[in-house]
Amino acid sequence: MTRKQGIIFINAYSASYQSRQVERFVSEFKTRGCVVNVMRNDFFPLEVSGGNLLCNVAADFCLYLDKDKYVAEMLEKSGVRLFNRASAIALCDDKMLTHIALSDSGIPMPHTLAGLLCYDKTAAVSSAALDLVEAKLGYPVIVKQSYGSFGKGVFKADDRADLERITEKLKLEPHLYQKYIAASHGKDLRVIVTGGRVLGGILRRSNGDFRSNVGLGGRAEKAEVPENIRRLAVKAADVLGLDYCGMDFLLDGDAPLVCEVNSNALFDAFEQATGTNVAAAYVEHILAQINA
């Protein structure tokens, strides 16, 4: 069998917290006899020149730890198998697209409205639109930038003044409005899915914030994943076309709701809480796929 050439692509401005994750992947590939090259996406590895797509990297597969949809699309068009695929990354990077993709598939989610797109910073926020947000979602209401990670760009409006202020702040950016789930205030269940299999879950709790992100000071503890959530997680990952993801469930009694799906979920806190080797599970899935 011909040895496959692999690369790990990271963002041109990759933060230090990603280095540990990259090291873990490199080690797990090496343990299995597969050498991968780590490439920072800052040398224009692909380009459109003379009407043709030029690829300046040689690889059979790529563990794509970036969200740059343009490079992802070009790599795939060049014949490189991406983990995750370009389409899955794009769907998960845009929170509203995630909800649209999962709709009509039996996946429960919070009531969500797409924010109005605005191209004029001098335009007044539509009072009629905010009237409808109030009527449909009530208060508090969650307002999110469509793009963002680690709880950034997520706000809670407790009244009309908050809603007007936050909407004014976000009006020039893609955003959404979402029903606040009181029962899940400051906590959620993070589930990691790899290759159609649930690796486990952690209960994330905040230290006073309505957001549960560990990066914002929250804490994580190992949690059992009920069978109904396991089924939902696997189904959602399949609908989105994901090889790997971290999926966040809001806990509303016996009715869990998919809140967000992260195609490049960090796993340090998850591994520490559960003892599960996430990097190994993902690498084994990748090698099984490319050697099939």
Number of strands: 15
Overall SS class: alpha+beta
Sequence of strands across the biggest β-sheet:
13-12-11-14-15
Q: Helical proportion?
A: 25-40%
Q: Provide the residue-averaged pLDDT.
A: 92
Radius of gyration: 20 Å
Brief characterization of the structure:
This protein has 292 residues and is α+β, with helices and mostly antiparallel strands. It is built from nine helices and 15 strands. The chain has helices spanning 17-31, 69-77, 86-93, 95-102, 127-137, 160-170, 227-240, 268-274, 278-290; strands spanning 6-10, 36-40, 46-49, 52-55, 61-65, 81-83, 112-114, 141-145, 154-157, 175-179, 187-194, 197-205, 219-223, 244-250, 257-262.
Write the layout of secondary structure elements.
Elements: E1 6-10, H1 17-31, E2 36-40, E3 46-49, E4 52-55, E5 61-65, H2 69-77, E6 81-83, H3 86-93, H4 95-102, E7 112-114, H5 127-137, E8 141-145, E9 154-157, H6 160-170, E10 175-179, E11 187-194, E12 197-205, E13 219-223, H7 227-240, E14 244-250, E15 257-262, H8 268-274, H9 278-290
Parallel strand pairs: 1-2, 1-5, 5-6
Antiparallel strand pairs: 3-4, 7-10, 8-9, 8-10, 11-12, 11-14, 12-13, 14-15
Helix pairs in contact: 1-9, 2-3, 3-4
What are its keywords?
alpha+beta, five-stranded antiparallel beta sheet, four-stranded parallel beta sheet
Report on the architecture of this protein.
This protein is of the alpha+beta class and 292 residues long. The model has no long low-confidence stretch (mean pLDDT 92). It is built from nine helices and 15 strands. The strands form four sheets. Strands 13-12-11-14-15 form a five-stranded antiparallel sheet. Helix 1 crosses helix 9 (278-290). The protein has helices at 17-31, 69-77, 86-93, 95-102, 127-137, 160-170, 227-240, 268-274, 278-290, and strands spanning 6-10, 36-40, 46-49, 52-55, 61-65, 81-83, 112-114, 141-145, 154-157, 175-179, 187-194, 197-205, 219-223, 244-250, 257-262. The chain is 33% helix and 27% strand. A hairpin with a 6-residue loop joins strand 14 (244-250) and strand 15 (257-262).
